[in-house]
Amino acid sequence: MAPLNPYTYIQCPCSDSASLGRPTDLTSPTSADGDEDNTFDPRAPRANFSLYPLEYLLYCEDCHQIRCPRCIAEEIATYYCPSCLFEVPSSNLKSEGNRCTRSCFQCPICIGPLSVTSIETPPPSSTLLSPDHAATPHSTYSLICSYCNWSSTEIGIQFDKPNGIHAQLAKLRNGGASRLTAKERKERRKELSHRGGEAAVAAAAAVAANESSGGQDVDLETQFANLKLFCNSQLADPSAADNGFSSLGDLGFSSPSSLSRIMNLYTGGKLHDPRAKSKLGAMREALAADEGLLESNLNESSLITRLHQSDFLDTASSTQICSQPPNLGEPHLHGASRFNSSLRPVPYLLRTKRSKRCPVCRHIISKPEAKVQTTRFRIRLVAGSYIPSISIRRLNLPGPNGPAAPAILGDLLDPLKPVHFLLTFKNPIFESLKVTLGAPATTPGRFPSKVTVLCPQFDIDANTDVWDEALKDNDRESSSRSRRRAGTESQFQVEVGKIWERGRNWVSIVVEVVPASLKLEAGQDVLKEDEDVLEIPMFVRIEWEVENGGDDATSGPGRDKDQKEKRELAYWCVLGLGRIKQG
Amino acid sequence: MSSKRHSILPAVSAGPKPPVRFSSSITIADSALLTGTNLITISTESVIHPRAKLDSLAGCITIGRRCVVHERTTLGAIGTSGKVTEQAVTLGDYVTVEVAASIEAGNTIIGEGTTVGVGARIGAGAFIGKHCTLTPHTEIRAGEVVPDFTVVYSNGMRRMDKRGVADLKNKGQARQIDVLRRMIPSNPAKFT
C-alpha cells in the first residue's frame, strides 16, 4: 500500500455545505457543535469536487472570499501556438481554425515536433565519393520527426518550398496528388455532363460517373460542391429537373412536398406559402454521384484483407485518429483509413492564456502578462497569501517506557491507540489572526475515530518583516525558545487549552486522535477504497482586524479613520492524517 | 588531467589488462576503461570517449569501423546469465552508442549504422539489425531480434524507418568523427 503523506484540503465555500452534509439520522452520531447542523463529510461523493489544496485556490480581495477553479469566470486573453509562440489574433481564429497555420507540425505517430528538412535528390552520376556537391538546383523538402524518424515522404508528401508548409500541405492529398481546385472540378463536371449528355436518364449518368471518377474516390470537398450545385440548380429552376421523377417523388413520404403538406395539417396552414410549395414540390433528391450522392460501400473485404496482412502496430490508435485535423481532400465515408501509413502531420493546436474573474464582483483575480513569451502574471491573488496554511506533523511523545521512536512519514496508525498530531498554522498576512477551530468529536463515516482538538482557539502574530523580528529577537535568543508553551520539565506533556509552540507568525497546536478499529462486523460490506484513511473535517474560522483606511476610506466617509474593521472568513477543511492499520 | 579523484565512489578495480587489437587510426581517450581477459578489437577511425567501459570478461569485444562509443557506456556488461561466449559484443560499422547505454555480453550483435540511444539497455544475445534507431531509454530484452531499419520508440513501440537516409547518416558520422578526433586526446598506447 502506498504510504500516505499528510495533506490539507480546503473546501471552497462556493459549494453548498448543507447539501454535502450527511443526514443526522444515520449511524454516525451528530456533530458536537450545536449551531452547526451538518458536519462536512469528506467522504461524501460530492466532496471530491469542492476540496482543493491551498495552492489551487485564489482569493477575491473585494468579496473577501476564497475562489476555487469551479467558481471562477475565465476569459481568454490570447491565443498562441505552443511551438512557435506566435500570438494568433482572434479574427484569424474564426477564419483559419484553432491550429497553427505557420510551419509547426506534430508527428502523427509519436507527437514529437516535426522539422522541415531538404531531401537531397542525388543526381544519377553522383557516388559516395562526391557527397558535398550533391545539392541539386531543384531540391524538395519534407517534414521529419527526429524522434521516431517518421517522414512525410512516407505518405508521399513533399514540399517545394521550406516555408508556408501549412498552406502547401492543405493543397496536397496523401500520395502527393494535389487537391482538386474549384476550377478543375468544374471542368471535370463539364466533361462528365458532355459524356453523359446522350443518356437522358440520370441513373445512366450515375453509372457513367461512377466509372469515370472511380466511384468511391470522391472526396468530401468534391461531393459537397456537387451537392451544393445540384441543390442550387433545383432551387433556381425546378422545372428543369422535372424529368419524370417529380410525380413519383410527390407521393413519397420523404419528399419535401408531402412533408410540407403534413406540416400544414398540424400547423393549420400557417406554413402555407403557395410559392414555396410549388418550388419545394418540384425538388427531388440527388440521384447520381455528380449530383452529390454518395453510395455507401458495404464491401470492406479489401480493408479486411489488408488488416489481416498487417501488424497490430501498423494500425492507428484512436488517439492518433482523433488528433488528425479534418482533411477535405480525403474520402470521408469509407476511404478513411485505419492505418498508420495514411496519417498526416498534425498542426499544433493553439493554446490560450486566460484571465480569471470573480463571478460575483467581476474583479480580476488572475491576469497573465499579455506577451506570449513571458510566464509572469500581472495580477494573481492566490489564497495562500490570505489564509493561513496548515501543515501536519506526527508528534511522538516519549511514553513511560523511554524515549519515543521517531515518527516515520506515512507510518500506519494503530487502531484504538491515541496518537498526537501537530498542526502548524502559518499566518501570511500582516495582521494578527484570531483562529477558532471546530471539529466533530468523531469523524463521519462507517469507522468513527475520536478527535480532540486540544486548543481550539488561539492567536497568531502578524507576518512582520523577517529581519525586524530577527534583529529584535537577537538579544533574547533564549527567551524565544521559551516561547514554547511548556517549560523544559513539562516539555513533553500535552495540555488542554494551551498551544504547543509559537513563532514569529506561526502557532502549533496538538490534535489527539484515537483511530477507529477497522474490524468489520457481521453484515458489513468489505472495506471500500481509501476507507482506511483517517480524514478529519475541521471548520476554521479566522478573524482579523484591518485598519479602516486605504482604498476603503472612500466607501465609509462618515467613519473614523482610526477605527478598525473586523473581518472574518470561515471555511471547512479536511486534514488527511494517515492510514489506519488493518486487521 | 589532474590525478585527484573527485568521485566519492571507490576506484574501479582495473582488473587484468585485456589483450587489444587497435587500428592505427582510432581515437581512444586516456580515461576509457578496458577490462577483461578476452580480446578487444577496435577497427579503423572509431572513437571511444572518456569513461566508456569495455569489459571483455565474458568474451571478445569487436568494434567496427567509424563507430562512436560515448561516455559512461558499458559494452559487455555481464548480465543476469553471466555466460561466457566467444563473442561478447559485436558492433558493426558506423554504430553510435550514446551516453550511459549498456550492452550486455553474450553474443550481442549490433548491425551497421545503428544508433543506440541515451541510457538504452540491450540484453544478452540480442540481435539488432542494420540502420536501426533505438530511442533513449529503450530496453531490448535478451535474445530479441530487431530487424533492419526498425525504430524502437516510446516504450517498445516499433516502426520502420522509410527515409532511406542511411548513406547520408554514414557521411554525417564520418564528419562527426573528424571533429571528435580533434577534441579527444587519444592515447592508445596506454592500453596496448
TrEMBL record, chain A:
This protein's record includes keyword Cytoplasm: yes
Region (Disordered), start-end ranges: 20-42
Q: Name one GO cellular component term.
A: stress fiber
Q: Which keywords belong to this entry?
A: Acetylation, Coiled coil, Cytoplasm, Cytoskeleton, Isopeptide bond, Phosphoprotein, Ubl conjugation
Record's InterPro entries? DCTN4
What is its subcellular localisation? Cytoplasm, Cytoskeleton, Microtubule organizing center, Centrosome; Cytoplasm, Cytoskeleton, Stress fiber; Cytoplasm, Myofibril
The principal location of this protein is cytoplasm
Per the record, the similarity remark reads:
Belongs to the dynactin subunit 4 family.
Q: How does it assemble?
A: Subunit of dynactin, a multiprotein complex part of a tripartite complex with dynein and a adapter, such as BICDL1, BICD2 or HOOK3. The dynactin complex is built around ACTR1A/ACTB filament and consists of an actin-related filament composed of a shoulder domain, a pointed end and a barbed end. Its length is defined by its flexible shoulder domain. The soulder is composed of 2 DCTN1 subunits, 4 DCTN2 and 2 DCTN3. The 4 DCNT2 (via N-terminus) bind the ACTR1A filament and act as molecular rulers to determine the length. The pointed end is important for binding dynein-dynactin cargo adapters.
- The identity of this protein, by name, is Dynactin subunit 4
Where does this protein come from, organism-wise?
A: Triangularia verruculosa
Q: What is the lineage of its organism?
A: Eukaryota, Fungi, Dikarya, Ascomycota, Pezizomycotina
From TrEMBL, chain B:
Q: Which domain of life is it from?
A: Eukaryota
What is one GO cellular-component annotation here?
Answer: dynactin complex
Gene3D superfamilies for this protein: Hexapeptide repeat proteins
Q: Where in the cell is it found?
A: Cytoplasm, Cytoskeleton
GO BP terms: namely: mitotic spindle organization
What Gene Ontology molecular-function terms does this entry list? dynein complex binding
> Which InterPro entries does this chain map to?
DCTN6 (IPR027777), Trimer_LpxA-like_sf (IPR011004)
Which SUPFAM superfamilies does the record match to this protein?
A: Trimeric LpxA-like enzymes
Q: Which UniProt keywords apply?
A: Cytoplasm, Cytoskeleton
What does the record list as coiled-coil region(s)? none
Keyword Cytoplasm (UniProt): yes
Family membership: Belongs to the dynactin subunits 5/6 family. Dynactin subunit 6 subfamily.
Q: Which PANTHER family match?
A: DYNACTIN 6, DYNACTIN SUBUNIT 6
Q: Function of this protein?
A: Part of the dynactin complex that activates the molecular motor dynein for ultra-processive transport along microtubules.
- What protein does this entry describe? Dynactin subunit 6
Q: Which organism is it from?
A: Triangularia verruculosa
Taxonomic lineage of the native organism: Eukaryota, Fungi, Dikarya, Ascomycota, Pezizomycotina
